[in-house]
Amino acid sequence: MGQSLVEFCAVLPLAILLFAAVIDGGYMMLVAINIHTGVREGAQLALYDKAFSNDTIKKRIKDSVYAAPIADSEITIAQTANITIGSTVHQAYEIKVNHKHYFLLPFVFAAQSTIDLQSTITSMVVTGLTP
After folding, report:
1. Cα(70)–Cα(64) distance, rounded to whole angstroms?
2. Which of 14, 27, 28, 102 has the most CB atoms around it within 10 Å of its CB?
3. pLDDT of 127 higher than 80
4. Residue 131 included in any domain
5. CA separation for the pair 47, 131 (Å, rounded)
6. pLDDT above 90 for 125
7. Beta strands across the sheet bearing 114-124
8. In total, how many domains does the chain have?
9. Lowest mean pLDDT among 10-14, 96-100, 121-125
10. What is the DSSP letter of 28?
11. 91 vs 71, residue with greater confidence
12. How far apart are CA 52 and CA 27, in angstroms?
């Protein structure tokens, strides 16, 4: 009986630490997937030729990322190039979210308490497309 209790006490902290790391890592993956989904949602709005403002696109991104609060300063929307197809000139936009994720249990990952999660999509505006 005593030996079992000693072994249990020796293994329990390691098991709890492993369980906490799995939960924290899973939450980080949830946030990363949500950020990528939000950037895709923003890219869908950017397809329409100036039908939506940058503020509307940012709001759509923030509404789509339900797992973590995204600040406006973490979202970048920039025109990257003009693409000519035939006689039509299309604009390409790069939508980027660079989010600083704070771990739920920073003591589990002692080397760092935050990690930068980033997602970028480049989309081309389709002229004549209406919402």
Report:
1. 10
2. 28
3. no
4. no
5. 9
6. no
7. 75-85, 88-102, 114-124
8. 1
9. 121-125
10. H
11. 71
12. 32
Half-sphere exposure of 105 (CA within 13 A, CB side): 13
Residue pair 51/130 in contact (Cβ under 8 Å)? The answer is yes
Phi, psi angles (nearest 5°) of residue 84? -100, 120
Both tokens of 124, joined, read 């081309």
The band of 96, judged by pLDDT with boundaries at 50, 70 and 90, is very high
- CA gap 100, 106 in Å, rounded: 14
Average pLDDT over residues 54-70: 90
Q: Left (φ > 0), alpha (ψ -120 to 50) or beta: where does 128 sit?
A: left
pLDDT in tens, 1-11: 788 889 999 99
Tokens of 116: 């930068």
DSSP class of residue 110? T
Residue 76 lies in a domain: yes
Q: Is 129 exposed, middle or buried (0-12, 13-18, 19+ CB in 10 A)?
A: exposed
Domain of residue 117: give its range: 2-124
CA-CA-CA-CA dihedral for 46, 53, 131, 78, to nearest 10: -10
pTM, whole model, 2 decimals?
A: 0.80
* Domain-located, residue 130: no
